[in-house]
Amino acid sequence: MFLNSADPLYTEPADSRLIRESVEIYRNTKEIDVGSNRLNFDELSTAMDVALGKRPASLVVLNGEIVNVCTGETYAGGVAISGNRISKIGNVKQCVGERTVVVDAEGAYLVPGLIDTHIHIESTMLSMTRFAEAVLPRGTTSVMCDLHEVGLITGLRGIREIVEKGRELPFKEWLTVCFEVPMTPSKLETVGGHFSKAALMKMLTWPEAVGWDELSVPMLMSKSMDIVDKIACARKLGKVTDGPCGIVEDPDRVIPACVCAGVDYSHEGEWTTKGELEMLRNGMRVNFIEGGNVWMQNLKNQAKVITEHRVQARHISFATDDLSAEDIAERGHIDHHVRRAIEEGIDPISAIQMGTLNAAELFRIDHAIGSITPGRYADILFVRRLEEFKVHTTISMGRVVAKNGKMVIGLAKPRYTSVLMETVKLKRKLKPSDFLVRTKKNARTVRIQTLVSNEEVRGFRNGEAVLEVENGTILPSVQNDVVLIAIAERHTASGRISVGFASGLGLKMGAIGTTVAHDHHNLVLIGTNPSDMAFAGNEIARMHGGQIAVADGKVLDSIPLPIVGMMADIDVQTMAAKVKSMKETLRNIGCNLTHPFMHLSFFTGALTGWGWETGRYNITDKGWVDLESQKIIRPIVGVNERTS
Amino acid sequence: MFLNSADPLYTEPADSRLIRESVEIYRNTKEIDVGSNRLNFDELSTAMDVALGKRPASLVVLNGEIVNVCTGETYAGGVAISGNRISKIGNVKQCVGERTVVVDAEGAYLVPGLIDTHIHIESTMLSMTRFAEAVLPRGTTSVMCDLHEVGLITGLRGIREIVEKGRELPFKEWLTVCFEVPMTPSKLETVGGHFSKAALMKMLTWPEAVGWDELSVPMLMSKSMDIVDKIACARKLGKVTDGPCGIVEDPDRVIPACVCAGVDYSHEGEWTTKGELEMLRNGMRVNFIEGGNVWMQNLKNQAKVITEHRVQARHISFATDDLSAEDIAERGHIDHHVRRAIEEGIDPISAIQMGTLNAAELFRIDHAIGSITPGRYADILFVRRLEEFKVHTTISMGRVVAKNGKMVIGLAKPRYTSVLMETVKLKRKLKPSDFLVRTKKNARTVRIQTLVSNEEVRGFRNGEAVLEVENGTILPSVQNDVVLIAIAERHTASGRISVGFASGLGLKMGAIGTTVAHDHHNLVLIGTNPSDMAFAGNEIARMHGGQIAVADGKVLDSIPLPIVGMMADIDVQTMAAKVKSMKETLRNIGCNLTHPFMHLSFFTGALTGWGWETGRYNITDKGWVDLESQKIIRPIVGVNERTS
């Protein structure tokens, strides 16, 4: 009865493959942890020896007041660190050796590194390195991002490259895998990365991946086998699934149905107090969300579940979702959430748990992050007064990285390959004639559908305009605020360009352009005349992507975003200044949008159903499309012909 | 840049295997959950429809007061159930259809089904079915057991069979996989199942498996690659690892070192208040342990971390480890822990969370059990007064299974195969001559090493006795309390029998025998004469295992344990009565041990280092062994020869 490899149970196919693989992976790598920066056997062994007092620590924090999020206590003590991990807490004087770096906390509270459970770092336009540099001084040491915008341009390859390079940072970048990329797949436009179910499931197996994000109610309600398979895959891997976000219609029935489908959490929570309470009562974990200034600010409502309804906070954490470089520069990151929660009347220990342990438990990685306890990454913040919650020192992965709001170590420029750096692929230089909209030779005027900006809701409407025709070319009407809008395909160098008309932007002269445009991220050009549009497009191609304003053949202002055409390796202050300057420039040429390029990034393309207002028609690289019938149509609704 | 199977990232070996397998498993089975009883796609779809009001529930509980362990609230509401899952909570009247079973809770509190996070059900001597029947009326709906005793007799096969049959029950049996089986592997004795590292890792991949258990401090401190691999495998699978239990020497250094090694929880916690606090502060999850009457009772000390040190309870749950049928019959199961915790001054909601949500979160299966929320198994208890915590109705997996302390449904007798039912394999019938201990023909007396009972510590010492020899046969000395002890190998029918001498048991006549003996579980026979020992052994073999007392060729009392020689399919009351009667019988033949067979189960064999007192020498089926040198030796230390 001794078990050996002849035992028939050994040949059961599925399980034995898994076990073989598990054994194999760990035999080869000796890795014992998931996450961006892994612990190998030697590190593990060293960490144990430091705890046992057999070996000195690499860094010791003395004279702190530990905020122990596991027990909810605070008490005097220090932390002994071995490499990037915590070895021991409490009494650690004996861990100091000759070469140990000793940091005196001077009685400050020691708080675990903060966690943002959902962010699209692409919206900051900063490279991962500069993003880390911006938020580390604020106390953030882990973020969950899905990088699906990068994926839409580069495919899996580019995401992997960012993740790999991210490992070199004293910062942890975990992945939540976007459930569908593009979010509303469409044959009506070209994207750079279209992810099969298998590709997404593969991403989910990556050690950095902690779960799915961005499932919508309609997806869940469809009960398609694709969805069942994907959620089942997460269960199998011990990972979690994000579900309905924001205001849910008929929450009393829809929330439990989504939870039945396998949803574990909501990255935005429900924005109303009542809805948030409903999610928590239904066993979902939720986030208090405080996005950038022009995004969602829901913490005030959501906090009432604690301050008024008195629910326990253990299933609540924090997220930003989208925010700009200006937001980070002005108010901070998750430290801002902690302060806001305290302002709303939540006790500081609970607020800190939301920013740390609760987030780690949500993703089932509390063995790696979320508390100042042995074996976890050594991410420790010094805070003098909990109520004020101002981070004055950040230790991340065992190193002092920031003091008094500034980095004290430099983070090397990431060296990305052409996969990320050369993503604006045009077939040839753009010419003014590419931006002419033709109609019948004998037309005098045409009535044509237009795209009308509606910045209030970050969306658009449709309208109609009557435009003059000259020799078969439809002319924009700057005085009536009807300008040209074009999409130049930039992923496959197909040479495809489509042109239409937009209004509500206020542009009085020149042209503007951007390569940030959800979900297609083709080159979007808006202009008062074809020459400036061609010039703007060629300039953007030369910069390998970015945002630009031109007039009369001159660049008025530009923000080069050479990383996938969406991000740049420049520091947060510079980026914030550039964005501010660009707004000013746009105002000077008549564009009075409050956040022009951010608005434009949701203005074009076939993406629908994500919560902002959309009209029926929009422009993609393939033409003027009817989003309802999913067909390419002609925008001209009437032609007034010359009677010659 | 479109991703397809030609993408080089697809050929990365390890990940792609895993993803292929994940896809495959779920494509074939449509299963969406881990655990003993899985949810298939149709069930999922139905559960969603019930929540949405598109289909009536199978069972609805009305008029309850929901104890929502996720938010810490209690509020009026009901529960709608679809099959074995919860579909909706709160307002559920609209879920009642024509064929819906409606249960009126009459205002009772609705509490989630209770969870025992660590139990060896073998110690109850009840089959899984009768165990479930015993604890369901007490409110337990999930147990984590490792079944390693079964494994020691049958190998992986028998464990799998019990798990498979368990799926037919309205009860959830999860597995924690014993880290090493046998616990102290030894060539000095024969066991029925010796588990390779690969076999144990295979078990860990089973959907019912939630983690490793029974790691000891010495194992962890050894830092062997075996240990690293096993812990890494758990991390990879999203499962957890049990670590040091009970009183830890030098806790200030050893606890953090164990946590650095990858330990997540302690199934017994630390038995002292200080040690328990230390574990919690170090980020471990712990159990409050209240074993059977003769096992550990540590809740009183452990509870002080909450009542005196005021730590948050979220990382604390409950376990029994070992308990007898009598314990269950007399005091209950995890319901007893909840009552004890409340008695110690812990608030009822926290106590209930420890018995439910906290346990589920510990094992990262809070999507499946631990709260009355949608998608979870429909395990619901009715309790009139929380402070009293008396379960008067149990709904398990969507069915009312017990009312007023009694089952209201019958659980069919399990039909196990010979793998579990025919495990006492002797080469031939035992004969009295098998139990003769020979020495030199001319010896008059011998001085011989003995095994001395030390019931106080559940262990043994060694002693020496001077015994008379007749025709080369060493005679027991009943008047001096030195009797014969024998181990008959029963796993491989090798015919191996070894015989020695034991004292401290008080036996005055006849013989006793048992097939429960950790970790070898061979046939242990203790007797005043060879004939009764042979008779006792043959009777046990006829019963396919169990416990027996005989005298003068007659059976005085017996407990047949035909399931692996350790368990029987008889109800808890009958089992408790049998154990009581057997104690009485043993007392009548002079054996005054308080818990004779339980004591005997830890009396023989090569198992060492598990916390109870052991001497240097013991008896196994291979002979008299020196546990220190791990060699078989001769127990005779001196011979007094006849001068003829």
Shape of chain A: elongated
Helix-strand category of chain A? alpha/beta
- What quaternary form is this? homodimer
Give the CA-CA distance, first to last residue of chain A: 102 Å
Question: How many DSSP E strands of chain A?
Answer: 31
Instruction: Round the mean pLDDT of chain A to the nearest integer and report it.
Output: 90
Strand content of chain A: 25-35%
What's the Cα radius of gyration of chain A? 27 Å
Brief overview, please?
Chain A is an alpha/beta fold and 644 residues long. Helix content of chain A is 28%, strand content 26%.
Q: Your description of this structure?
A:
The structure is a homodimer of 644-residue chains. In chain A, the strands form five sheets. In chain A, strands 18, 19, 20, 21, 22, 23, 24, 25, 26, 27 and 31 form an eleven-stranded mixed β-sheet that branches. The first copy, chain A, is of the alpha/beta class and 644 residues long. Chain A is 28% helix and 26% strand. In chain A, α4 (148-154) packs across α5, α13 (325-331) packs across α19 (572-588) and α14 (334-343) packs antiparallel against α15 (348-355). Chains A and B meet through α1, α2, β3, α5 and α6 of A and α1, α2, β3, α5 and α6 of B.
List keywords for this structure.
homodimer; 644 residues; alpha/beta; eleven-stranded mixed beta sheet; nine-stranded mixed beta sheet; elongated; disordered N terminus
